[in-house]
Write a structure and sequence with these properties.
Blueprint lengths: L1 H6 L6 H10 L37 E11 L3 E10 L4 E8 L4 H14 L7 E4 L8 H9 L3 E4 L9 H13 L9 H16 L13 H12 L1
Parallel strand pairs: 1-4, 4-5
Antiparallel strand pairs: 1-2, 2-3
């Protein structure tokens, strides 16, 4: 809130903003995340990232994950996304009624169409059945992407993707009840492409939006 006011030319101290928000009883929405229960096999995979989410350039480290979103008529629907850790931008996403390997592949193919993927780029995921599937491993191997996996029982390994989960759910999903898949699909497009990329500031990228920071980084590299 403080950074938004400063960016709009309103000079005010951080403490004064805190005081006003307290008087207005304005606070973040805090709701416990829903996590579907599943039984995962004990799998040993390499964690290349090792909670090192720092980067120096675009297309070096990315995270991928799936989050479920409830609707009244269509039941649980699923968002598959890939985020670039350097610019905090959702590089690719797919919304589906089923949590399948094919729709994760669709998300990966969208990423490849939109961005050059350098050899050796790291993609970090959890040990979900979709991400350890042979079709996914084959796709990553063909495109020379290094697959990094979270360790079982280590939630901080997924901190990169969880930050987007938290923003999405607090700022969009928990504030709305969706009728069906189509309505939620439109809402996700509006939130991700409209608000998150172009209007939401991130302290980790100097209080710029992901689109502003991406434009700045591309200009720097040319």
């Amino acid at each position: 809130m403080h950074q938004v006011l400063l960016k709009n030319g309103i000079s005010v101290s951080f403490k004064h903003v805190q005081k006003l928000t307290k008087q207005l009883n304005s606070r973040s929405i805090m709701v416990k995340n829903y996590r579907p229960q599943s039984i995962q096999p004990v799998i040993s995979k390499e964690n290349i990232l090792k909670q090192n989410f720092s980067t120096k350039n675009i297309c070096k480290k990315r995270v991928a994950d799936i989050t479920c979103i409830p609707t009244k008529q269509s039941g649980l629907c699923y968002l598959s996304f890939i985020m670039d850790l350097h610019i905090k931008k959702i590089i690719s996403y797919t919304f589906s009624k089923k949590m399948t390997v094919n729709y994760v592949l669709k998300t990966l193919n969208k990423e490849k169409q939109r961005y050059h993927i350098p050899e050796g780029m790291i993609l970090h995921t959890n040990l979900g059945s979709q991400y350890i599937a042979l079709d996914i491993e084959k796709w990553l191997d063909i495109n020379k992407i290094r697959h990094s996996y979270s360790r079982k029982g280590r939630p901080y390994d997924d901190a990169g993707s969880e930050s987007f989960h938290d923003s999405l759910k607090k700022e969009e999903i928990f504030a709305t009840t969706y009728l069906n898949f189509e309505e939620e699909n439109r809402a996700l497009f509006s939130y991700i492409d409209g608000f998150y990329h172009r209007n939401r500031f991130h302290s980790s990228i100097h209080y710029l939006t992901p689109q502003e920071f991406e434009n700045q980084e591309k200009a720097r590299m040319t």
